[in-house]
Amino acid sequence: MTAVAPLFSDPYRQRFAAFMTNRREPDAVARLRHSAFERFTTLGLPTREQESWRLTDLNALQAIAFQRPAEAALDAGVLPTLETPTHRLAFVNGRFAPKLSRLHELPDQALVASLGQALLTHPERVEPYLERLPGLENHPFAALNTAFWEDGVLVDLPRGVVIDTPIHLVFYATGGDSAVHPRLLLVLEEGAQATVVVEYRGAGRYLNAPMTELQLDTGAVLHYHKIQEESPQAFHFGGIRVRQGRDSQAHLHLLSFGGQLARTDLQALLDGEGAHCNLSGLTLVRDTQFGAIHVRVEHAQPHGTSAQIFKSVLDDKAHTVFDGMIHVRQHAQKTDARQANRNLLLSKQAHANANPRLEILADDVKCGHGSSTGFLDPDAEFYLRARGIPVAQARALLVHAFANDSLNRIRLTSLRERLACVLADHLALDIMEKI
Amino acid sequence: MLEIHNLHVTVEGRDILKGIDLIIHPGETHAIMGPNGSGKSTLANVIAGREGYTVTEGSILFEGKNLLEMDPEIRACEGLFLAFQYPVEIPGVANLYFLKAAVNAVRKYRGEPPVDAMDFWELVNERMALVKMDESMLKRSVNEGFSGGEKKRNEVFQMAVLQPRFAVMDETDSGLDIDALKVVADGVNALRGPERGFLVITHYQRLLDYIVPDHVHVLVNGRIARSGGKDLALELEKQGYALYNEEPGRARRAA
Q: Which of A379, A388, A397 sits opposite B109 (nearest CB)?
């Protein structure tokens, strides 16, 4: 093991010591923080010698001495809404903001709360999950998160609880070179169902590294939306771990628009027969933005199905990475796993890396993957122009058609319509013309 | 309305059109026939403004204006229409939305406000009946998954909605069975009138049984080898292009 350069770890150690001073929380949690911090110092920040970090350039990040975020008050108008009743939890600089939050009545035993509150009121339902993020043990930002999380979310739905009202989780960072490490924990017990929208936003320069654990027991159904609209200077490192039981359904939408450097590591473990995992992603980047998605879908039990479609639209000198692995264990017969990656380049200087991978140890499976990267179809562009549509509008229409497919998969109408406007703005397309 | 003078066109440095002269007046329908590779589609594409074609000599005037200086969308807004030989599939763009965008682009060019939704819907319904198109095609993506016949009907439908002053039909008959051919021809005939001109490009005489032209030109190896009335098409059908002493397909192979 290479020793971590002292220059790298010392500021973190000081930050950690300050962070731990006067914390009021169970000893078990403090111990977890210490061990996670030690794990982080051993792991170090990733280097480009590590295969999965080869294309993620952390130089700009390492040049910044990130701080523990300051207290900040925020006007409610800054935060996004869904224009529909929601259970809403808002966080400013990683800390729960009760005044910006609103919970409606919940079914008996169901918990939707800030993680800090839940730790005080229901420690037995939180502590077992804090110890580690399975599958992300070697992810340095996961270790940092366990050491430094200040707050986050617990959604715990007992057996059979179905929550129709969307759960809206909003994280806002106010910059100032702060580092925020939200922790999200969603547990859907047998047959539980929920729709969750997580939004990340901010202003100025900061690091946001949220870690999310999604557990779906037998027959649970989760619709999960991650909307990353960080500020243009922000760094975003998200980790999501999905663990699925028998016949459960996870539908995840990852939409990534902001940040100078944004990366999501997603691990899905289909650990029960007949589990279904549906992943859809859309990344829009321009200028010198970098956006990366690293996905691993692991089929551990038979009859599982997974479908992935990840798209990106790149303009200017932007860069995206799609690194996707489907792993089918020997026991996971009758697996049906699909993966598609489509990248649309709007500029000759934009750059998309695609690395779709399959590892299949079972012998009776259907697996397929495909990746394509290309420019707009000149024939389609000419066809639109030959009907009188100006070239800029023709191009915008074609890009919209490519990207809108990802939005159309979102069932939550108010969210889908708002994102359609984000997309239209991005393309300077007048959506009001739409029929 | 369309005047082509001494038009020379190269594609990737090869001569395809070698001096075309053609004058079409309002109300006239002209047919251009010729063997494969004679330059028929090149002529259609140059008129519509597709990239990749270089005009080395000559001119095209449309209603007195220099067509070659205009971008493709400007040509369309000026009233020119190309029915594509191979209509393009555009996944994710609904036919109806596409059509409305096109109609409004032309209206904007003319300084008119966007089309009224009800008026547009009426026009669309009326024109749909003309080409016997099913309403479900409006919601589908442009040409995506359409059969060959549906694609060609969609071209005529678009033309019927956009009501151009001049239309070029580039092998609109290719790949059509006789029923589809009649539907397409009926659609074109319904639009014929004293103010509108047509240039119908075809390999086969068959289409001209249904769209009866005023003038027929035979294009061989980049030149108009002969012009005549509608009977010329029948003559060609009997005798083929061999009379013109040209090996067919030269231009295409050269291209």
A: A388
